[in-house]
# Entry
Amino acid sequence: MKKNEILYDDEDLLSPADAAKLVGVARTTVNYWIRNYGLKTQITPGKRYKIKYSDFKLFMDFSKNKNRKEKKIKRRTLKYKIAILEPILVTRRNYIEWLKDDYDLICITNLAKPLRELKRIEPDIILMDVNLTDDKVSFSILDDIKREMKLRNVPIIIITKNYSEDDVVSGLEKGACDYVKKPVGQNELKARIKNLLRFFIDI
# Structure
């Protein structure tokens, strides 16, 4: 056995980062296998994905016959997908103009009931206001998102004019990763998205 080599039992649970290290790929590649190629996962009480070692071994044996190299390249060449929930047209246009070169952008059309669209597109990141309809502050959409298996681990950035301490605390406690005051500038928004990717997706 090599020095510092880790041996796993079949029932051991791996994080996506652990699994990535075992086979020498990026964590985003393992996340892509989970979403698109049927790699089995379990959800821990802390709402984290875990992969049983026996399931990972079976998947990797299968992958050897399904061109693993092609899968790794596909994930790394795709742009991250960002869903935008923003009721103000000029603000949506600004986000699209600022981010279109670096990300795949989808504007959610049904702001009153956005879950169906969100589940269909399975975004990597959600940008949203908490004033989605009738200029009423509502954090309930965060609860709805976190209840959905396909969406519960998607990082959320709230961008809103409602920036009291209570609002910020409510947004973060309900699962948002960042809370930004409107109006936000182009460079700040880009930096916050990159920071989120670095700490929540690409780690």
Remarks:
- The first helix runs from residue 16 to 23.
- Strands lie at 13-14, 42-43, 49-52, 81-85, 104-107, 125-128, 156-160, 178-181.
- DSSP finds nine helices and eight strands in the chain.
